[in-house]
Write a structure and sequence with these properties.
2 copies of one chain form a homodimer. Chain A is built from 14 helices and 9 strands. By secondary structure, the first copy, chain A, is α/β, with parallel strands linked by helices. Chain A has a single domain (about 5-339), classed as Alpha-Beta Barrel (TIM Barrel), CATH 3.20.20. In chain A, the strands form 2 sheets. A 7-stranded parallel beta sheet of chain A has the order 1-4-5-6-7-8-9. In chain A, strands 2-3 form a two-stranded antiparallel sheet. The interface between A and B is medium-sized, with 32 and 33 residues.
Amino acid sequence: MIYQNDLILRAARGERTERTPVWMMRQAGRILKEYREVRAQAGSFKNLVENPALAAEVTIQPVDLLGVDAAIIFSDILVVPDAMGCRYEMEEARGPVFPQTIRNTADLRLLHVADPSELQYVTDAISLTVKQLDGRVPVIGFAGAPFTIFAYMTEGKGSKTFSIAKKLLYTDPAFSHRLLDLITESTIAYLKAQIAAGAAMLQLFDSWAGILSPDQYGEFSGRYIHRICEAITEVPVTVFAKGAWFAIEDFAKYPCRTIGLDWNTDPRWARQVVGPNKTLQGNLDPCQLYATPEQVAEATRSMLQAFAGGPHIANLGHGVYPDTPVESVKAFINTVKQA
Amino acid sequence: MIYQNDLILRAARGERTERTPVWMMRQAGRILKEYREVRAQAGSFKNLVENPALAAEVTIQPVDLLGVDAAIIFSDILVVPDAMGCRYEMEEARGPVFPQTIRNTADLRLLHVADPSELQYVTDAISLTVKQLDGRVPVIGFAGAPFTIFAYMTEGKGSKTFSIAKKLLYTDPAFSHRLLDLITESTIAYLKAQIAAGAAMLQLFDSWAGILSPDQYGEFSGRYIHRICEAITEVPVTVFAKGAWFAIEDFAKYPCRTIGLDWNTDPRWARQVVGPNKTLQGNLDPCQLYATPEQVAEATRSMLQAFAGGPHIANLGHGVYPDTPVESVKAFINTVKQA
């Protein structure tokens, strides 16, 4: 595939680029009124995720409307457990809910390694997006990191402490590893199908990384991320583990290309820990975008400076919040592009 | 005051002690059936907090029942905004709720610097506890760090992102500093009253520290913690800022004696950053206590090893979870005492 704009792929390979590429986690979403219109048309979040034509449409919106350097496929990390046999529902107020949780070896009977054909609605959406973008920018595929998926499947819903999930790591490590293994196998097959459909980069989201101690992280999360990074040799992989600053040194040894930083992490410190070769991604505080466009531009320039010591893909330190003013979002993106 | 057991005070002063002292955040609480009985008698959480005799009773329970080396006064960090004129309610399912939030300069009219006489129910509870303990162990007083109190007063309730609170830091820093200043002045007066009532140590809880970027943390949280540490010269102060690993280097320069670590923070790394002089406190993962007593004992020994490079007060890395088995809690405490 020849891209008109392949800045992000070159930055991910560690090459020097004429400017820093930029995209935003959750860029395809509620910040755009055009998204909210399609979402209303779909009727529900899950309908939108499972409809390739509509998913492709909202995936491309931020390329057209915001001018980002990559599209990330509109989907959800929880499609993987869904395909494994652990269905989720998305409740408007509460977020994801799993009516049937998986908490012991007997529950594993309910699950199977997901076959990518069960997630064809995602790979179809990727193919369609790639076709419609026609080389304007690359498409990023993604999946949840196995521990984050494990946390939802065992806890059954979002949680501040995920104490049910964490308790299982301590009380039933054998079960925990079996479930993590099933998730990992499903994820690798799913990511390979995303590549086959045209995803030019992949990102792993370890949203709940920060609830684990460093030792537990290595045993129950890092090793599975490592395995995925080893299995994916076709395209560059980004690891974004929110709150897992303590694991960055390990990530630097994995065969991933890019390490995403949350806004708590000083980019200069991360560069020292990671060394000169990998690309870093991030990390403006999404709340910074509540400020005026002028303030956002200033903060963005200061962030770019902090990342100047090595290859960088500009992004926020977490997904953009739904009520963020579009003007400030544009100030962020345009400041990166003009720097 | 002469204590039969002053291990924790000596450890807080950085002296070598015959063994490591141990207590647990939230030790006076729902893990003990004796607490649940008094709580039922009080009728509500706030009634219990505001009743000195009952508060003293539950404060002393873990000394009697668990053998910890300090009592921490049973109270809540939100008594300070309550006394400032911003009343809170404690809802069983949702946690604290502030019907009237403080979000702009005009709202500041509703507030005043709290006079310690408005918090006499706490200082009375401390005096009573000190009297009833009769020198068995010291009593720890506490307050929330100003930013954490600010977060509740502005947001109005708990939140995953506290995006309303954080937005104010970006959009109205002048208001934010005025509110933080009022909270800080109230907190200093309150802590001095706790000392006068007999608190032999103080701890600041910055529960929501981890939502701020390092720069914002320095400006909106660290500087107020610093000011409190400078104002309190009578007794040793502990700073516990959950998720603020990036601020530990700054805390090392504050005139506090002890730095509390959450369970994400490697004690050996923290010791390197902090240097040899300050005492470190922590940091077993509260979820570890869901494991068997044997596993807890092993993890506790390994934690003690990790802290062996300098003065240490053993604790969890966060408050004990309400459904933790008492046998495992005892395994934690007894392992420290026998090491």
